[in-house]
Amino acid sequence: MNRTDVLGLLRAHGALPLDPNEAAMTAATIDFVEAHEDCFQRSCLLGHLTGSAWVVDPARTQVVLTHHRKLDRWLQLGGHADGDPDLLAVALREAREEAGLTRLRPLAVAPFDVDRHRIPARGEAPEHWHYDLRFLIEADPAEPLIVSDESHDVAWVALAEVGRLNPSESMLRMVRKTERH
Questions:
Q1: Which of 49, 52, 82, 162 is least surrounded, with the fewest CB atoms within 10 Å of its CB?
Q2: 3-state DSSP call for residue 116?
Q3: Residue 55's domain is classified under what CATH number?
Q4: Which pLDDT band holds residue 69 (cuts at 50, 70, 90)?
């Protein structure tokens, strides 16, 4: 996979019937990837691509969330590409590293959701954008979760409870999509 492949995934996603906010973020992500050959690297200080895992149970009633240590918010699993243009592989790696999950089943190679969000300045890193491709991945809720040093906690959360933990439109949009999936 390479930049051209990612642009193909983004263009296909942008052709779907998306809400206006996600459509605008998808278009902004396409523009960003087209303009920045180094879009997979953290050294691209304006922003960079990230891959996230929206991990659901087979019944689609629960999702794995992490209480992110640095951001102090409940979020989906995910992280930096660090040079890897295969963002589904990035999402799977992050699910393994952040939650200890090993029996993961991607439900598609196409992104489930695309989001663009600001990351606050921290240490030497300036405020920047994360252009996040999120993938729908199934896991067994009986598999034990492991809390990594990046998190305060990791848990299976009922879809109906996600908004209580994180009421951001970004999270609520993925809940709505899961309920329709």
A1: 82
A2: strand
A3: 3.90.79.10
A4: confident
Q: How many domains does the chain have?
A: 1
- Which residue type is seen at 148? S
Q: Which long-range contacts (CB under 8 A, 24 or more apart) does 68-73 make?
A: 68/150, 68/151, 68/152, 69/149, 69/150, 69/151, 69/152, 70/122, 70/150, 72/152, 73/166
Residue numbers of the domain that contains 43: 3-180
Q: Single out the residue of 117, 119, 114, 108 nearest to residue 7, CA to CA.
A: 114
**Contact criterion met (CB below 8 Å) for 147 and 153:** yes
Amino acid at 144: P
User: Structure pTM?
Assistant: 0.96
State the DSSP code for 126. P
- C-alpha–C-alpha distance, residues 22 and 37, integer Å: 23
